[in-house]
Each structure stands twice: as structure tokens, then as C-alpha cells.
Structure to design on (693 residues):
């Protein structure tokens, strides 16, 4: 009963309803404008909303998240520029459709499919999370530690071509998170005897720098690119179209939820995998993939929205983010005095059900805003980058300053912005850095708890891992990810399958 | 997984970050060397926290992570040394074009001026300079756009989000009070 009441909170309070709506609306446009990303928007927003109550703050951020994941598809279809990483796969078939003059149909199908995907993701979240959190109570400190390592490795290996760079980025993040006084012994770590380092580095400054300023600097390479105008006619898709693609959308939604729920992986990877899946299962598409196949739109769009619900599962139950945005959400909950993890689900179940309710609401708003307001949309997206880029930078500075009213946070933010700019150029993924910063504390605490309970004995520690099924599974997963990226594995695979491939070729 | 076309994307996504597989971009070797040296410095610093005191000591995880950084940075560096350079790219054209350097300098100047000058004048200067630099339109347009956007940002963040930025030389508190009086007077 309490759960239902908490679930309905957002529907019964006009203020919260308005904030979710506003957030979704803003999210659709932020997601759609190339150069503005949801991660960027949510990280900047945390700093502005931290003086608010937790419900309104979360409502706004959930709206932006949901809307933003969808919004990226708009520009992917119209301009062949994915507005957000999760819309990269959408551009592959969406843009060819727009070129054929079917931009309206493409946007309509995308909207409805995002809605369906989003719904499935939320439903799975509502059903699965309570079970997972109950299960999570049995987690030992070492399991948390392994899970954190797994998350950082996963985002590193799936998100970039080079696992080594991903690992480097993740380790860097953990080190950044360790700066300051150690909370257990009060020893100084990485402070270089500087006053400014004693309190640690604000993770919001790192986040805004890496996702806000570095992205804005990157956009400077494309200032001159102009937006292309497209004529859009009918948007709302026919029922027959929706029904025809329903089976595929259910499959790809499942992929989306699972990928989203894996710690460290989010909508972008889910969309790419779903696209790949659609390509394999659709035997006879009406139009070939890459030339404007409807299936090529359905798959990534259902998957990336389903991943939203999925990403909340590890975040709410384990305190481990499902992707970069939920990593930031965890930060938001921390700031509001909540501690995501299994205890949150038990102590404050209403918080969980409130979030589920807000997600449902945001999903409806997304459907509504997705099918309306195309004219306004084309106007906003045509905003020149020469104005947009300085504004993003200004907002980043205000955001970094606002959290602690401290100018040193602005310097940190700018420093990480410049650093992130080079990392982007040289192919180092930024996601693992943020995940590392957020998980640093969890990893450090749980490692020390685990090793102390094993009386500082590494042998006993490993014995503990091998004898607990859960720890063993996590440990094997970590090892597998690691080994699968090394030349050793590739050579082994060639030895095993290489000869067969040769035969097949002949 | 099929190869994804990234030509039309800005290379800003985490799914497809910049950089090339099998080739080395200009400056990549220097960056790799800096990462390796920086990691070594951090490892030395981490060793200084508590040495090999105990497995649960505060320095253990920092030492482990910085060791991972050193090893991975070394692998990246050694691999980069053997890779051929991307042909046709230069640092000045593709990595650090003049406009990026200029905007970065503007940002640093902003950071230094923010406290003494205050939020409003610094931001106005920044926006006008940056928009003029990037847009290349006439002064009227540039100044109008800058001021309108600054006004919107100020109203949204100062009034709605109640974010306090350094006031500097502008009597901001008095301005807000005047605004408040104006609205409460209307009641």
C-alpha cells in the first residue's frame, strides 16, 4: 500500500508533475542539440538543484534523462548527426529514410518505439529491483569490491576500441577519488601537502569538466557546420506499422534492459547491440539495412530507452551505476543525504517507488513531446554553435562554482576539461574515469573491510572468493573480460577456430 | 559487432571515442609519455602514503590503482611507438587549432577574473568575445545575443535556482532586492 502511494506521489503533486514534464521537454531538446549531452546536462543540473528537496531534484533529472535518451534520435534522423551517443545506431537507417522524404514516419516510429522500450525497462526495474536488493543483502564486502572492478572494466572494454586505455581511465578515476584525507585513518593521500587537495577533488567538478567543457572544446572543430532543413509531414505512425514491429521491439527491449542493468554499460552500447541483433534476425527487410530499414530504427530506439530502466537496477539495489548518467544520479542522491544500495531499498522503499513513478510519468511526457512541436523543434536545433558553445562553457563554470561556492572547484573543472579534451582526441574513454571516481570509495572501503575480516591474509581472501559461488562468478567475469582483450585470447581463438574459417573460405 | 560509421559523429561519444586504431595521431606519443611519467609520479606518491605496511592500509588501493595506471600507460606508450603516424594530420590543424587555444585562454582568463570582477561583467566579457570570435557576425548582433542570453541565465540561476555567484563590482544583492520590492509592491 505504501509502495502504491509512493509510486503515485509524482502523479498527485502538481509541482513534481510539472518538473518531470519540464525535465522531459528540456531533455528532448538537450538530447537533440548536437554538442549538448544528457550526461552534461544532468551533471550541471546536480550543482544547481542541490539546495532543493530530493523529490523535485530527482523529478527534474529523471525527466531530462528519459527525454534526452530519446531526443538524440531526432537529429540522427534529420541531420545524420546523433544528438547523443545512444542515437548513433539510429542514424544508420533513420537518415536514409529522411533522405527519401520519410522523416515524419521515421520520427513517429522512433517515438512510439522509444515509449514501448522505456515502458518495458521500467516494468523490469519495478519487478526485479526488490528481488535484487534482497539478494544484495547477502553480498560480502569482497563481492562489492569485485562488482566495482567489474563495472569499471566493463565500461572500459565495451566503450572503446582499446581496453588498455579504458583500464587506464578507470584507474585514474579511482586515484582521483582517493585524493584527500582517507576517511578511516585520516591519512593524507595524493595531497602533495597542498591545502587545496586536503578536502579531495569534488567529483562534480571532474564530471562537469570532462563532459561539459571538454565536449564544448571538441565542438569547436565543427563550428561552421550548418543545420540542414527537412520537410516533415505525417508523424503519428499507423497501428499496423507498430504491430508489425512489436515482436522485434520486445526482443530488443530485452537486450536493452540487460545491457542497461550491467554495471557500467548504458544506452549507447545497448543500441548498437540491438541494431546488430535486428540485422541478424530480420531475414528479409523491406529495405536493406543501412538504406533506411524500419527495423534499423526500431531496434536501437527500443533498446536505448529500455536501458534507462535497466540502468536504475544496479544503481538502486547495489549503489553501482548502470551508466554515466546513473553514476551522476548516485552523486545526486549522495548530496541529498541518501545512500543508494540494498539498505536504501529497505529503509526508504518509498524513494524507490517514487523514482519508478517519475520514470513512468517521464515516459508518457516523452511520447507526448515526441509527437508534437516539430516546428519549434527545428527552430531550436538550428541555434548556431557559435552561441551554443560559449553558453555551455558559461553554464559549466556556474555549475562547478555553485556546489561549494568555491573558485578552486572552477579551476579543477577547467583543468579536467582541458585534460578530457586530449583524452577524447587520443581515444581514451571518459566514462570509466567518472565511474572510477564514484566507485573509488566503495572499492577502497570494501577491500579493506574484506581483507581485515580475513585477518590480512591474501590466501584466505582468495579461498573466500573460490568457495562462495557469487564471488566466484564475479571473479571469473572480471578475469574473462580481462583475458578476452589480450593478444593471448586472440591467438587462442585463431588456433581453435582459425582452421575452420580457412576451410569455410575455400 | 558491426563497425559503426563514425564519420558524421563528433567523436565525442563514449561508444566511439576519438583516436584511430592502428595509427597514431599527432602528439599522441607526447601525451602517452606524459601519462606514463605522471603515473610513475603518482605511484611514488602512493608508496609514500603507507608503504607496504599492511594490506588494509590507506595506501594499498592507491598503490594498486597507480600500478595499474603505470602498466597500462606503458603498454599504450610502447604500442604507440610502433604505430605509423596518421598522414595529413598536424597538431596545429587537428588537435590544437588556434580557435581551441584562444577559447581555452578565454576560459582561464574567466577563472582569474571571476572573483575580483564579479559574475555579470566577467560573463558579459566572455560571451561577447567568444561569440564574436566564433560567429564572426557584426557587433550589434553579437552584443545583443550575449546580453539576452546572459540575462536569461542570470534570471534562471540567480532567482530560480538561487545560485550565489561572486558579485564583484556589481551591487547584485541590491539589484535583486529592487526586483523583489518591485514584485511585492505590486501586490
Amino acid at each position: 500500500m505504501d509502495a502504491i502511494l509512493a509510486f503515485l506521489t509524482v502523479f498527485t503533486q502538481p509541482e513534481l508533475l510539472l518538473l518531470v514534464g519540464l525535465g522531459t521537454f528540456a531533455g528532448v531538446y538537450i538530447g537533440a542539440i548536437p554538442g549538448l549531452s544528457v550526461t552534461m546536462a544532468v551533471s550541471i543540473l546536480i550543482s544547481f538543484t542541490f539546495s532543493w528537496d530530493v523529490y523535485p531534484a530527482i523529478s527534474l533529472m529523471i525527466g531530462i534523462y528519459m527525454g534526452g535518451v530519446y531526443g538524440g534520435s531526432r537529429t540522427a534522423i534529420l541531420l545524420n548527426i546523433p544528438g547523443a551517443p545512444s542515437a548513433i545506431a539510429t542514424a544508420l537507417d533513420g537518415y536514409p529514410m529522411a533522405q527519401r522524404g520519410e522523416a515524419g514516419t521515421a520520427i513517429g516510429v522512433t517515438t512510439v518505439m522509444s515509449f514501448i522500450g522505456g515502458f518495458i525497462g521500467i516494468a523490469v526495474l519495478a519487478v526485479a529491483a526488490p528481488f535484487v536488493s534482497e539478494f544484495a543483502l547477502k553480498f560480502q564486502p569482497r563481492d562489492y569490491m569485485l562488482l566495482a572492478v567489474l563495472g569499471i572494466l566493463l565500461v572500459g572494454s565495451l566503450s572503446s576500441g582499446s581496453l588498455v586505455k579504458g583500464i587506464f581511465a578507470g584507474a585514474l578515476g579511482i586515484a582521483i577519488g582517493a585524493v584527500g584525507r582517507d576517511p578511516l585513518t585520516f591519512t593524507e593521500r595524493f595531497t602533495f601537502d597542498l591545502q587545496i587537495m586536503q578536502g579531495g577533488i569534488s567529483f562534480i567538478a571532474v564530471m562537469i569538466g570532462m563532459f561539459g567543457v571538454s565536449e564544448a572544446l571538441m565542438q569547436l572543430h565543427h563550428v561552421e557546420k550548418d543545420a540542414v532543413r527537412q520537410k516533415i509531414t505525417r508523424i503519428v505512425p499507423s497501428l499496423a506499422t507498430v504491430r508489425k514491429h512489436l515482436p522485434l521491439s520486445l526482443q530488443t527491449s530485452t537486450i536493452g534492459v540487460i545491457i542497461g542493468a550491467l554495471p557500467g554499460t548504458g544506452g549507447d552500447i545497448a543500441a548498437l547491440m540491438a541494431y546488430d541483433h535486428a540485422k541478424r534476425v530480420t531475414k528479409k527487410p523491406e529495405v536493406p539495412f543501412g538504406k533506411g530499414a524500419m527495423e534499423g530504427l526500431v531496434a536501437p530506439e527500443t533498446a536505448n530507452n529500455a536501458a534507462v530502466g535497466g540502468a536504475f537496477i544496479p544503481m538502486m539495489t547495489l549503489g553501482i551505476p548502470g551508466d554515466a548518467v546513473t553514476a551522476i544520479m548516485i552523486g545526486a542522491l549522495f548530496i541529498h543525504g541518501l545512500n543508494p544500495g540494498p539498505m536504501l531499498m529497505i529503509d526508504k522503499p518509498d524513494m524507490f517507488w517514487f523514482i519508478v513513478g517519475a520514470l513512468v510519468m517521464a515516459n508518457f511526457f516523452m511520447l507526448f513531446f515526441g509527437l508534437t512541436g516539430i516546428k519549434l523543434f527545428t527552430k531550436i536545433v538550428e541555434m548556431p554553435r557559435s552561441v551554443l558553445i560559449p553558453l555551455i562553457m558559461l553554464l559549466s563554470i556556474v555549475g562547478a562554482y555553485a556546489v561549494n561556492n568555491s573558485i578552486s572547484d572552477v579551476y579543477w573543472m577547467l583543468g579536467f576539461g582541458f585534460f578530457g579534451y586530449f583524452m577524447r582526441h587520443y581515444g581514451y574513454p571518459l566514462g570509466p574515469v567518472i565511474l572510477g571516481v564514484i566507485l573509488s570509495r566503495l572499492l577502497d572501503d570494501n577491500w579493506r573491510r574484506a581483507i581485515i575480516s580475513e585477518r590480512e591474509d591474501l590466501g584466505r581472501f582468495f579461498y573466500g572468493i573460490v568457495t562462495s559461488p557469487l564471488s566466484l562468478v564475479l571473479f571469473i567475469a572480471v578475469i574473462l573480460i580481462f583475458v578476452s582483450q589480450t593478444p593471448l585470447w586472440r591467438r587462442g581463438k585463431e588456433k581453435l577456430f582459425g582452421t575452420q574459417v580457412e576451410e569455410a573460405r575455400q | 559487432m558491426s563497425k559503426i560509421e563514425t564519420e558524421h559523429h563528433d567523436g565525442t561519444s563514449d561508444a566511439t571515442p576519438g583516436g584511430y586504431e592502428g595509427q597514431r595521431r599527432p602528439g599522441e606519443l607526447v601525451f602517452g609519455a606524459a601519462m606514463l611519467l605522471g603515473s610513475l609520479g603518482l605511484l611514488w606518491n602512493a608508496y609514500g602514503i603507507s608503504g607496504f605496511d599492511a594490506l588494509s592500509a590507506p595506501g594499498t588501493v592507491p598503490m594498486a590503482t597507480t600500478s595499474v595506471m603505470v602498466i597500462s600507460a606503458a603498454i599504450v606508450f610502447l604500442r604507440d611507438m610502433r604505430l605509423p603516424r596518421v598522414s595529413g594530420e598536424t597538431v596545429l590543424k587537428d588537435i590544437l587549432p588556434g580557435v581551441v587555444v584562444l577559447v581555452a585562454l578565454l576560459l582561464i582568463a574567466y577563472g582569474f577574473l571571476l572573483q575580483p570582477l564579479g559574475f555579470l561583467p566577467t560573463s558579459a566579457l566572455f560571451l561577447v568575445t567568444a561569440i564574436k570570435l566564433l560567429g564572426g557576425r557584426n557587433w550589434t548582433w553579437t552584443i545583443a545575443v550575449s546580453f539576452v542570453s546572459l540575462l536569461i541565465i542570470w534570471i534562471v540561476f540567480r532567482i530560480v535556482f538561487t545560485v550565489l555567484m561572486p558579485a564583484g563590482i556589481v551591487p547584485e544583492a541590491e539589484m535583486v532586492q529592487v526586483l523583489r520590492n518591485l514584485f511585492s509592491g505590486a501586490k
About this structure: Residues 1-16 of chain B have pLDDT under 50 and may be disordered. The first helix of chain B runs from residue 28 to 50. The two ends of chain B are 64 Å apart (CA to CA).
